[in-house]
Amino acid sequence: MPTHEFAIPTGRLLTSSHKNHPNQEDLAHKLALNFNKTSSGQNSNTRKIVKTKVTSSSNQRKKAKKRQGKSKGPLKLLALFLLLILVLFTGKELFPNSFAKNELIEDDFVSPYIYVLNRTDHSVEFTKNSDTKIYPASLVKIMTTLVALEQIDDLSEVAPVDVPTYQDMVSRNASMAGFFGREPVTYRDLLYGTILSSGGEAANSLAVNVSGDVASFVELMNAKAKQLDLKSTHFTSPEGLHHKEQYT
């Protein structure tokens, strides 16, 4: 039986019977195409696998970075918390030279008048122009609040905002807490309005509700100053607006 040999584009040889395969050239061509497709598919699958591995590796790195970032968050908060504890509870020991008596450079402060008292032993830590006569302005409200607290029995008692003093504060452009005339607030409200908002209407309404009028309340303020041995302090009003006779 005669045989034929012919080359497939892939370089392989195919030997077959002419009788059984009358279209050997067509068959060889089909086999070559199938081989090329298979080879191409394998290459494509290989590229997909490589791409998948690269993408997976990239995602893993991103997730690792996120986990690291999340793990650092609580550590940062813990560090800030510990620093706050150090500042609050070590204070003077953490910064040993911060409050050395009169060792601070006076030019470091904005205020020209300073008096620092140690709350533990009541010793004077630092002073700057402490004997200079000045006008205390809204610091007067500290004495207003102190005197009022000593006179008030029930902080929940209604103490309406006084209309005349309210109008006076508005006309003099005083700082206000935000109350309005005859508003049925309590002593507690007026105290908050005085010391937190520095409200002139709150301070004067305290005075009127406690003593009946502003002048009588101011007498209590000066009596308290004398009791505390504040020899160079004098008050003329509960709200602290400038007056030449209101000084410390």
Briefly say what this structure is.
The protein is mainly alpha-helical. The protein has six helices and four strands. A two-stranded antiparallel sheet has the order 1-2. Strands 3-4 form a two-stranded antiparallel sheet.
Q: How would you describe the overall organization of this protein?
A:
The chain contains six helices and four strands. The chain has 248 residues and is mainly alpha-helical. The chain folds into three domains: 3-87, no CATH class; 101-132, no CATH class; 137-227, Beta-lactamase (3-Layer(aba) Sandwich), CATH 3.40.710. Strand 1 (3-7) and strand 2 (13-17) form a beta hairpin. The protein is extended. The model is unreliable at 3-22 and 91-95 (pLDDT under 50).
Itemize the secondary structure elements and their pairings.
Elements: E1 3-7, E2 13-17, H1 24-90, E3 114-117, E4 124-128, H2 140-151, H3 163-171, H4 187-195, H5 200-211, H6 214-227
Antiparallel strand pairs: 1-2, 3-4
Helix pairs in contact: 2-5, 3-5, 4-5, 5-6
